[in-house]
Fold each of these.
Amino acid sequence: MMHSIRLLCSSMALASAGMVLACQPPAEQRVAGEATTATPATARVEWGMVIHGGAGTIRRKEMTPDREREYRAALTEALGAGYRVLRDGGTSLGAVSAAIVILEDSPLFNAGRGAVFTADGVNSLDASIMDGTTLRAGAVAGVTDVKNPIVLARLVMEKSPHVMLSGTGAERFAREQGIPATPKDWFFTERRWKELQEAKTAEAKPATERGTVGAVALDRTGRLAAGTSTGGMTNKKWGRIGDSPVIGAGTYANARCAVSGTGWGEYYIRNVVAYDICARVEYTGASVAAAASEVILTRLPKQEKDTGGAIAMDREGHIATPFNTSGMYRGWVDQTGAVRIAIFVE
Ligand code: ASP
């Protein structure tokens, strides 16, 4: 079943980038995977990217027009940043990083500036990035004073012999790489503080409006990359680390497939979600849409409902954006510059 795609029709951020803001895409330009049902991959892009701003309980009736506009503008800005990198001949890795930096700097998303609070009232950030061509990867977990954890994750990949650094060690590495400590109040948002207070009074189940950010991209030379950044889950305790910085769980890319996940991290770790999707593509010949749907829409819901979603892209530019929650902030752009944004089941 192909769902219609709602488009952002305002100009703003992208006009300067020469991007086309499509309001009514021709049917053949619709991209597969825009569904919470198994959608076959029927369309492809030559190069482009897909981003997400988190899956969870996002209810249409609770979304004001102003708020929706803010989300769409932020997602559009992030796609614009990634698009410019790709258009100018940059790498998929560069596009993933550029898009995620914009989302980390927005207070709207649970990453960087808008990160949720731990039970101790601090913001503890996780991020990872992976280059599908070389299988090189970098990740940081539990950092509290790094404005853009995705940038640090990339430095771990490029400037250290390791894949994952955590806590104060990762922060020390950041200083050595010339990244200054960001004052803690940069990460304070009233909304996330309130969510912590609410979570403390209803401890039973982790909060379900999450807002992790991620990106997957395919560049002009056919290279894939993926990245994910998050504040984790509200009220997390004991130094809990989720799936987002775990290569194979929240992020994975190889030569054929790139995935970024968002959802209840414990399930994503147990099911090695990002790798499972790519392994299905590689070993079974499944389309990226079929593989992502099988994992997100069939396997995870058997274990728990409302676990989350994922974005996936293959080396032919087929994309998928399945989620088993009521919404997932998401968007994509292709070589024509056409931007599509969606939040709910469309
Ligand atoms: N996956 C993230 C975590 O568990 C949260 C999310 O994506 O909403 O840390």
Amino acid sequence: MQHVAVPRKASEASSASTPIRALRLGVNIDHVATLRNARGGMHPDPLRAAHLAIEGGADGITAHLREDRRHISDTDITRLKNELTRPLNLEMAATKEMLQIALRHVPNACCLVPERREERTTEGGLDVKGSAKMLKPFVAKLRDAGIRVSLFIEPDPKTIEAASDVGADIVELHTGKYCNLALEHDSNGVARELERHKKAAILAASAGLEVHAGHGLTYNTVQPIARIAEIVELNIGHFLIGEAIFGGLSMAVRRMRVLMDEAREALSTSARGAK
Ligand code: PXP
């Protein structure tokens, strides 16, 4: 595991005056679907991964239904909504099509994200101020249906103000830049980004918004963010699904070896019997 320049002491990234609430983990299972879609068919199944994530301690499941359906499908959302025992956080762009899908399924929460077809993952946060006119009624329709609305934003004061103005319940702070700087071993940049997140989280909480964070988090980068007391939920996907390969691959190979050896053993036994 590579070493990155992130603060290790709680004092470097904690907010003294806030009561400490539990920190929930939402596991994003998009990339189980990415792997499934590489072959078509049903395996590996994102719903099975969701159940395992919950077994492992996830408080909720996050899935991003993209306009191009590159990973999660409409059927995945139906199955997750019908069969999950924990809250579903549906990430989606603020489009008419997605609004209808969300209103049909009524997930626990919708996280509105910017979406561009050519991007590999969600790059940058929503331009809440610039899209306020569209977002306000959009957020209201979701909230009227009993869905909590989260906006995926950069940790920026003006955007937090705008998120509050359009009626969001939650802001999810985009930790991508912080994580990239950590990967580049830029300790000054990391410290600067952590400070931005801390200030943004305090401001958002004081405006009555629930504060979440996510994107690019790893074992190395999670703790300084987890020490910001105002943040009450982290959404983590790609790294966890990647790590699951390393944690689970030797077990899967061992199981395959056993099945192959059993079959060969049976073949030898029947060949001996035929003589
Ligand atoms: N939060 C939001 C809003 C996202 O769009 C994503 C990526 O789909 C994540 C969290 C999780 O990011 P990662 O897969 O890098 O952990």
